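Lab notebook, bench 4. The sequencing result for the construct came back, and we need a structural model before the next group meeting so we can plan mutations. Quick request posted to the team channel:

Model the 3D structure of this chain.
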Amino acid sequence: MKRLCVLLLLFAGVSAVWAADLPITEVVLFSSGVGYIQRTGTVTDDATVQLAFKPEQINDLLKSMVLLDLDGGKVGEITYGAKDPIGKTLQAFAVNLTDNPSLGQMLNRLRGVSVEVIAVNTITGNILGVETKKVEVGKNCDVIDVEVLNLLTDTGIRSVRLDAISSLRILDDKLNLELREALKVLASGLDNQRKPVLLTFTGKGQRRVIVGYLTETPIWKTSYRLVLGEKENLLQGWAVVENTSDADWTNIHLALVSGRPISFIEDLYTPLYLQRPVVTPHLFASLNPVEYEGNLEQDAERSEHKSVDKRAAARPMAAEGMALRGSVGGEANFGRAAGAGGREMAEAAQSSVVSAATAQNLGQAFEYAIKEPVTLPRQKSALLPIVSGTIDAWKVSIYNANVHAKFPLYGLRVKNTTGLHLMGGPITIYNDNIYAGDATFEDLQPGEQRLVSYAVDLGVDGNRTENSGLQEIMAIKLVKGSLSVTRKYQRTVNYTFAVKDGKDRKLMVEHQFLPGWELVEPKTPDERTATLYRFTLPLKATEGGKLRVVEERTDLQLTRVMDLDTPTLVMYLKTGKISPAVKDALQRVVVMQNHLQDLRTQRTQQEQEIQNIGNEQSRIRQNMAQLDRNSDLYKRYVTTLDAQETHLQQLRANITDLQQKENAQRKELEDYVAGLDLE
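Done. Here's the predicted structure in token form:
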């Protein structure tokens, strides 16, 4: 296949360049899971460079590939084999294999085709179709379904059972070729091999070219070793780099970039088809085509956008490479170490590729450029030194009750004095030439400080107690008929530490920060994070140490006065946190509530009396039903009922009067309360 491609290109007057002639010269690995690969080489006259990629790499390639012809040439098209869904491709062939047809189904689809069938003898004819017949088999004459192929031959119609056919050949060469091509498409769905990508360069003579693209790569990782000394602390940083590609890295320029550029995969390789509605034509006279007027506002916007696009396209594409190696904010552009200067590459980029848009690099990044060329065979990994030097670090003990309720942790306050950005990772601590423990930290900017902990400090006992039940009413106001009560809550946490190993130490106490609570004691923390206060507490070997942290929170509660009962109002009157005006108003509310309650009580009592009389009358009427109307007891019951009815009439009149007074009193209270607005 490769030889055939070479012959075709030579015949067309185009020189062929292969991946080996365009080796990898630079690799930039990012901490976001992608890597920039740069190939550099030479081409002569019009040339086509063939590279090969895995199918899953094509999307990143289509999204990111950059080509440069540095010596006056031009960049042409990039061609690659289109990837269409197999089912969609199979539908284009004369023989439809999309649904995995059986032999009988496929022969039915070949009706009319000339075939040669070898069964007991050889039969040549055109396929009429396949039918199912019932056949008796065995001693018990069981009936089974058998597929039979019907052929139209020169001697008439012949029927052949499919299970008797040993060979079948399609005599139509074109259709036979179509069937073979369809089978190749099916086989390609299982093909995990590399796909060829052809890059075209046009020009005269020998020229340098650069091909750069992004591909998915393992995230490069960091690990550190910190050796604590009496005067200096030595920090070594190593990068874990993995070449999981199928190409060797031989004497390449390697750079490692820490940062979080946004990276994603978009399927640009698979052809996309839109579902279109099927419309049945209406049988009526044709209409003249309609021309619609354009929207002037939208047209103006389009013109403005086109002007902007033209201005953007006129700018040269930035190609000066990484601005600073070993400094914050470097821009990761292609072609840094290709042997061509930034100005030369910018000129080449402008002349060989006309950019349709410009892009702006967002965010900060830091690059570790490996000084010496790196050789790393494919499917191999390596540890590369990226940091080596002294760093400031001070020993502290760190207590956080949520981490360990009893013991603090041995730790370090590390200040990044390396001048480099330290990407986060694990760090192994050595103290007095002995392994002391492991720690980890997040990214550390130059000059930034960070706490790390690496072991449990068994020489100190810690204890934390909390009292958060104290509350106090601070002020009471009346605001538009509502009672405004301001309460202050207090939370006290006591930390107590005892030193057991006879050594002085500096302790850093981490205390949880709660939104809405104000720190009262101590007045200010030594440090403040998003979720913690930090307090420094020197511990003496003979004394230990104590820390008291007091926090306060103020809450405002609004309650409608009409929703408060008399005991609650009396309680507020006794707090002593109330002004004379508010006190007088609340006292009057209490008096009015008491009067209203008296009316309600009287009404309730008389309603209860009516209910009792009703119960008594029911008892009397039941007894009267059993008595002689002329008896003395019956007559006495009649007299009693008469007196009760008179009393009931009076009670109902009283209840009506009390209800009216109660409603009037409630309205008077509501009107009075609604107008209260006092401090």
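DSSP finds ten helices and 31 strands in the chain.
Will bring this to the meeting.
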